Structure formats: C-alpha cells, structure tokens
Amino acid sequence: MDTSQFIQRDETCWEIPAQGPMRVPAIIYADEKLLRDMDQKVHEQIANVASLPGIVEAAYAMPDAHWGYGFPIGGVAAFDPALGGVVSAGGVGFDISCGVRTLLTGLDMADLQPHKQQLADELYRTVPAGVGSTGRIHLNHDEMIAMLKGGALWAVERGFGVARDLEFIEERGCMAGAEPQYVSAKARERQKDEMGTLGSGNHYLEVQRVVDIYDQSLANVFRLKPDAIVITIHCGSRGLGHQIGTEFLKDMAMAASQYHITLPDRELACAPLDSPLGKHYLGAMRAGINCALANRQIITHLTRKAVESVFPGLHIDLLYDVSHNTCKLEPHTLNGQKRNLFVHRKGATRAFGPGHPDLPPEYRHVGQPVLIGGSMGTSSYVLCGTKDSEQRSFSSACHGAGRAMSRHQATHQWHGRALVDELANQGIIIRSASMRGVAEEAPLAYKDVHAVIDVADRAGLAKKVARLEPVICVKG
Amino acid sequence: MAPYWEHFAHEADMGIRGIAPTLEQAFEQAALAMTAVITDPAEVLPSEAIPIHCQEPDSEYLFLDWINELIYAMAVRGLLFSRFQVSINNGELTATAFGEAVDRGKHQPAVEIKGATLTELHVYQQPDGLWVAQCVVDV
Hints:
Oligomer: heterodimer
Shape of chain B: globular
CATH superfamily of chain A: tRNA-splicing ligase RtcB
Helix content of chain A: 25-40%
Radius of gyration of chain B: 14 Å
CATH architecture of chain A: Alpha-Beta Complex
Strand content of chain B: 35-45%
CATH topology of chain B: Archease, Possible Chaperone, Chain: A, domain 1
Largest sheet of chain B: 5 strands, antiparallel
CATH superfamily of chain B: Archease domain
Low-confidence stretches of chain B: none
Number of strands of chain B: 8
Number of strands of chain A: 19
C-alpha cells in the first residue's frame, strides 16, 4: 500500500490519524517494505476497527497483518465496557483460541537423526491430522460440558498430561467465565469426534531444531539451547469454535441496528459487552478457548506417547502455550490509570512483559514466551514479552509470517509432491494426507517471517530469543 | 447461458461464486465452488442424499445459511457433496445435497472449511439477468 497515507511516528510505527468515523487512531507496526507489501485492505480494515464503539487508545495491526474478515488478521483492539465497548465475533475469528504450544524434548539433533523417519511415522500415525480425521476420544453430553468448563485442566484430570503442564499455559489451562449453555447443540455435535485432532489448512505438528539463539540469558530461562529438539503444535478449537464463530457472526451482524451500532462494514459484526448477545458470545467464546486448550493438551499427550515409543523414558515438558485468536478481559494502565479492558487479538499473540502476575514463576522475571509459527520449510521463532509492549500494543505481538499469496495462486505455482521432495532434500520430512494441501501451504506463499520478527523486535513488541527450523512436519 | 461456478481471490482464504439463470442454480453452483475448495467435485460420487433446510427472508443471509448448513453437514457426517437440488420460496430454502463419505486417498481433501463469512457476501441479479451468489469461506 501507499505509505504516504500514514504519519510515520518512528522507524516501525505508522499512524492513520483519527478521521471521519474513527474514534481513535490506527497504528500499523511495520518497516517500509512490509508496509508497502501489505494489502490496502489492511488500511481499510484497521481504520474501520478504530471506528467501533468503546475502543480505547488505538487500533493496532501487527507486522504480519493481512486482509481478514472485518478485523485484519494481525489486529489488536481493546474496548472499555464503561464506554459502551463491544465484543466482535470477527475480532476473534472462526478458529477461537487457535494457538501454538511448544514442547521441550531434551533431545538434540544427534539423538534424533538416526530415528527421524521412525518418529515422523509414529507422529503421523498417532496424531490425527487433515480433513476427515477423527479423534479416539468421543465425548458424551456431560463430558462435553465438563471439557468446555475445564479446558486443559479437564484434560489433565482425565489423564492427558500432568498438573505441571498447566503452569505453562495461558490462564493456567482453564479459561474462567466459560458458559457452555451458550454453545449451541450444533457446535457441540461438530466437536464430539474432533477432540485431539489437528485439523487442516495451516495447522501442523512440527519437530524443530533450535538453530539460532539471540539472547542467551532469556534462552536459558526458556530452556532452549543450540541444536535442541522441540516439538510445536499449531491448532485451535476445531469444529466447535468454527460453529460458535459462524453462529454469532450472523447474530451480531443482524442485531447491530437493534443496538444502534453503525457498522462501516457488516463483517465487523459486534455487540455491546453489556448486552445479552455480547455476554452470551463471551460465555460461548470462553468455552471455545477451553476447547482449544483441551485439544492441544490431548495432542500433547498423543505426542508424548509417539515420542516415548521411539525414545523410551523421555520426559517432555511444556515451554509454553499461547492463543492468538481471543478476546480477554485484562487490566491495562492507560495514562497512569488502571482500566479493565476487553482486548481482541485476531492473529496476534499476547506478550506480557516481565513482572506480570499471570506468568508462571519460572518466567515472571523475564516476560512471557511468545511462540511464532512458521510454515513447513520456514523458521519458527521464540520471542519474549517486553515491558514496552504494554504501551505499544496492549502487550501484543505478531503470530506468524502471514500469507503473501492466496491458496489459489499457490496451487498454480507449486505441486505438493515436488514440494515434499524438495523439502526432503533440505532434510525436512513432510507427512500429509493431501498433496494439494501441501501446495496451498507452500513456504513461499507466506511473507518473509524473518522480516516480520525483526520488526516485532525493533518495534519493542517482543524480544527475539531463538529461531527454530523444521525437521519433521505433520501437516493438517 | 449454462450455470457455472468460479473462485475469486482472498489473501488468506477463498471466495466462492455461483452464476446462473436462476437464484436456485446460483446457490447450487456456489456450493459446487465450495466443494472445489476442498477437492475436485468430479471425484465425488453423488450416492448419498442429505436434506437441507433453512429459512431467512434476506437472500444474502439465506445464502450464508445455505453454505453454513452444508459445511455443518460435511463436518458431522464426514461427507463431500457434488450435486445439489435447491428450491427457494419466500425465504425458505429446501434442498438435497448428494455426495459420498470422504475418502482421503481418493479425494485428497486439501483443507476443511471453517465457515462462510460475511466478506464479499453478495446475492444479486446482473443486468443480463444472471444471478450471482458469492462469499469468502474461511479455511
């Protein structure tokens, strides 16, 4: 897009001043190249977000921002219920609480090398992935309700993991305020065979190698060292979250006029936080968060089983678990005043800085691990929340590279089988049921993740700690 | 002109569009476009029939419901669809979707669809008389 539409505040901060219906400014964090390469739709969408009732401070777009539904993907916005603030189903997204979890294996590359193929096969066999795959856990009504209230805590109580895991998950694995009665029967039906499944699209399970350390002391705290093997899971709330998003998006769009909300775009569908519809959505969305946390916990359990069958007796710990499609009630300090705000992060990762009470004791003195997913052939990153990000973006950072090319273009440019062979030559094993799915997720269909991460670091959104490269990718 | 479908570009996802002489056929074609996001519709046998019903006075929300009902039916029944018969009367849609169970080897399904979005949601009749039904689906 044309950079002359912005006031450049500093090297990585570009502002659209509040104008017309905008209640606050909109700010995009990017360098000049990332900004130029962003779709003009990001400008339009983030300016529209800035016009929603009750928004405070500014609407933010992260360096990986791209064209979304109402909100740009990579959008962050906080709303004050005392100012008539709203909650938006589109501001959370269809895949509620989609997120990234990284596991520490204690192995290094030399340990893995002789067993790489075997581990790839075991993981592919054990963790259900791709369209039409179903889990081995089938929930009846009561267990479904318990899962929606309990999240990863529910999963641990059922034997999927250990209590210590919960310390390393946002909300300690259980999102408070979940109200399963607002999750429709259809949403529950869609989930009943999908617990412990990865899904498809850009979701994956990756075995990764730590290749670069940028901050030794933070890497020590996160237990990362060069050549160490970690396993990263990227998935969300599966069919249940998708159905909640589908139903509330329509309900909110249709109810907007009833709440006297003028939507610049129908897809910005939202409802006042204190309205029945807003409250019902929050209750259902929080149940969706618990579904995602339980899902990643079950997949962790399956992953441990697969790894242990290859490396008997191996102990696997969580580095951390982050969600990047959420709306959460958080205290934030604005102009010296503490306010409770509903922070939407649509394709953005929470990035609490040092000293935050919600962080586990092990990380509290340094800040939150911020886990950034790559895509098959490309790097993933571990970053750390900073003190500055509280003022910069309500403690938020990017979530991935962001697509640079549509799926359509990608399938015309690459063939899945050729891509798998090419990645194999680079030492990366891909396991997937769909070669077309592989082509659509081709590494070059994404933006340059290094540029996105460098900007996030320079903008003070989160600090670079380590870079990871894929060794095995089980693609959803 | 014979009814047809096409995809249109969205940066992260896919747009589906049906174009046809009647509103019903435009809905049917858009549904085919949706199947084509997942797999080649020609590979899906129309051997199983599933009834679909939705009601919505606004034709755009009716289209949203139609696509979402198909997404739901595919998800909970583990099916893919390749043929549709739609009738619409006063905002009431009655349809049959024909398809078969997902076979991962045969269909090579690329991606599952999460939901139909309000993005680029339009249902209208062109000056040449053809109906267009379209939206972006989240994958």
